[in-house]
Design goal:
The protein is mainly α. It is built from 16 helices and 4 strands. It has a 4-stranded antiparallel sheet with strand order 1-4-2-3. Strand 2 and strand 3 form a beta hairpin.
């Protein structure tokens, strides 16, 4: 089997990757490359118990770069690797699409943990993974395009939060033409990820209600901004970028947004980015009371609403989600 066809069919399991698997019951079928016959053969079936002797053999195969899994099984594998995201920075056998999927799984789980228990421990675990994502994007900002390709249309607050982070991060890297600090990238990702955290205090029946909302329910939803900010204060989060995402993602350029009816000049760049990303991701997701918009229709809807959304950002959104081209660093920076 040629090296090219081997890499197309199989994914190499390094010693570090092997350590991310359950020790006795690997979650995927294991394959070993036979040097004598130049063939890859199944060595162990997924979920079956490995004896200590075979564990040692498997470790030896991994050390000699002879251990593989089927590339089509990477989604199973991704759920395990998502718990050790640091390996993404040291392994180079993944495609960008596979890495993006691993990041989605990791942040879906981290956000779910934090929303269920918004305390310091889950926050630190989530922030650690965000730092890994920031380092990954910092090394090559073009990678954000693969992140935006992973957005999911099945709605939940968790999924919406991860979708918004991926889309907003891409918009931020584009609109700043790559001129940002790595530390700022961490705060941007965290702010986008947590922009709607206050929604965990809004009753589910209110969020899923179709049609006109009574004033009490509308107030309950609008109060999620203040609720999210209060959570950040309890966690002693003082980053202006993170707080601006929470405070400003429902503000609009014409002053029609909430909670402070800010106009364009009073909305920060990250506030404008989060507003576009949040609205777009809400439009393309399924909800109990409406069908999702197609991605092109959602982009066009936002682009036409120049009174509310920054036109430079909606044009960049079109580049990302419709044209699918390379990142364009010549776009005008939003002031």
């Amino acid at each position: 089997m040629s090296g090219e066809s081997l890499s197309e069919t199989y994914l190499q399991i390094s010693p570090n990757i092997l350590e991310s698997f359950p020790k006795f019951r690997p979650p995927v079928d294991l394959y070993v490359f036979d040097m004598d016959t130049a063939q890859t053969k199944k060595y162990h079936k997924a979920e079956e118990r490995l004896s200590k002797d075979r564990q040692a053999e498997v470790a030896g195969f991994a050390a000699e770069s002879l251990l593989f899994l089927l590339r089509e099984d990477y989604r199973i594998y991704a759920s395990h690797l998502s718990k050790k995201l640091g390996l993404i920075l040291t392994e180079d056998d993944f495609t960008p699409q596979e890495v993006a999927q691993i990041f989605f799984i990791a942040f879906r789980d981290r956000v779910e943990d934090f929303f269920g228990n918004p305390t310091e421990g889950p926050f630190k675990a989530m922030a650690k993974d965000v730092s890994i994502l920031a380092e990954y994007v910092w090394a090559d900002p073009g990678r954000v395009e693969y992140l935006t390709a992973t957005i999911h249309k099945e709605y939940s607050l968790t999924t919406h939060s991860v979708n918004t982070m991926f889309v907003g991060l891409a918009l931020f890297t584009l609109v700043t033409a790559g001129k940002f600090r790595q530390a700022d990238l961490v705060d941007v990702a965290l702010g986008l990820l947590l922009h709607d955290v206050g929604m965990i205090q809004v009753p589910r029946f209110v969020l899923d209600r179709a049609g006109y909302l009574v004033q009490r329910d509308r107030t309950s939803i609008e109060n999620h901004v203040e609720a999210g900010e209060s959570m950040m204060m309890r966690l002693r989060i003082q980053s202006q970028i993170i707080l601006d995402c929470m405070r400003q993602h429902h503000e609009r350029l014409d002053g029609s947004g909430y909670p402070n009816r800010r106009f364009k000049k009073d909305i920060s760049l990250i506030g404008k980015v989060c507003a576009v990303a949040d609205s777009f991701c809400a439009m393309v997701c399924e909800r109990p009371f409406r069908e999702p918009k197609d991605i092109p229709k959602a982009v066009v809807t936002l682009a036409k609403d120049t009174a509310k959304y920054e036109p430079v950002l909606t044009k960049l959104l079109a580049v990302l989600m419709i044209q699918g081209g390379k990142l364009r660093t010549e776009m005008t920076v939003v002031e």
